[in-house]
Amino acid sequence: MNNIISHCIDINTQYCPCLLAETNHCVFCSHLKGKITCDCNWTGVCILYEKHWQSKKNRWRDEESAPIRTEVETKFKLLQQISETAFLLELSLPADFTNQLNKTGAFVFLRRPQDPYFYHFPVGVMKVSNTMIQLVVETVGPKSARIFDDKEHLLLVRGPYYNGIFGQPWIDNVTHGEIILVAGGIGQAPAFAIASKLVSRGNQVLAILAPGHMGKVFIADEMRRLGVQVHVVESLRREGMTLLKQKLSSVPDLIVSAGPDEQHYGIMEAMGNAGVNIPMAATNNATMCCGEGICGSCEQETRRDGRIRTCKVQTRFEELLND
Q1: In angstroms, what CA-CA distances link 49 with 46, 190, 320?
Q2: DSSP, res 69
Q3: Which end of the chain is more exposed for a tag (fewer CB within 10 A), N or C?
């Protein structure tokens, strides 16, 4: 269970082959990277075959059949102002859209309808219920702050995207296990979605929650209603890491870190000091501009696979080099 082969998060979905494959920049298929030999080690449907077969139908010349993400205009409802800069929003979307967002690591891009295309920014999905989704938006810059300037509360929502968490196969496949979930600050939003998934598969989840720079723990009550054992601490660096070291003595099946990279590395260090070698899933904090692997803003160096586009490539967080 402690091995994850790096792969594209969109492989063999309706969004594959993608625009990268069209230009011989596929993140997975060696032929569609320009190599002569086939060494993808993939047992699913051949991406190269799909590209050639679909190109015969003029797939890339027909906008209606091209695998482009959905973009929907909707209104948002402000459910709660969590802190000075963080807001819990609820949106209504078409049923087929919300169904696609009900997956681990799902996120969308948001922007105001009247803003230029380059104003969109990524936000993780916290909760999906029928045709409603909930998101927590932190106004850290002009793009995110501008959505609240619109008195009509209109938004353009583009998605779905899925690589919001590294180590997703562990979260998706573990059943009836013991899980430690550590979340701080804005990381609480994806933490709730992760906890919901884990609990639905019969896992026992212990959560260590801290306010982080947001200054507030806002998911504790909902987590308890899920059946999660919740420990709220003032600081992950102080009380949180001490508590984590104590809980590691029972050797859980999985650790999940939802928060900044600094938190991920702190948990890895605590695991190393405790001599515990178990899987760790972690939120993806890469800078993303397009979400399609085109712009390269999310590229990071890895130990074995060179530079990868982290908006597309599913891997272990431990494989990323700490810059």
Answers
A1: 5, 36, 31
A2: P
A3: C
- Per DSSP, the three-state class of 174 is coil
For every residue of 1-21, DSSP letters joined together read ------EETTTTSTT-S-HHH
Q: Which of 13-17, 93-97, 219-223, 294-298 has the lowest mean pLDDT?
A: 13-17
The closest of 154, 92, 162 to 129, measured between CA atoms, is 92
Counting Cα atoms < 13 Å in the Cβ hemisphere of 261 gives: 13
Return the pLDDT at 120.
95
d(CA 295, CA 290): 6
Q: State pLDDT tens for residues 100-120.
A: 999 999 999 999 999 999 999
Outline where 71-134 has alpha helix (H).
95-101
Is residue 32 within 8 Å of residue 47, measured between CB atoms?
yes
Strand (E) or helix (H) holding 244: helix 241-247
What one-letter code names the amino acid at 272? G
The distance of Cα 251 from the centroid of its chain, to the nearest Å, equals 25
| Cα-only R_g, the chain | 20
Cα 261 to Cα 25, 251, 284, 286, 322: the distances in Å are 27, 23, 8, 9, 9
What is 259-320 written as a DSSP string? S-HHHHHHHHHHHHHTT----EEEE-----SSSSSSS-TTEEEBSSS-EEETTTEE--GGGB
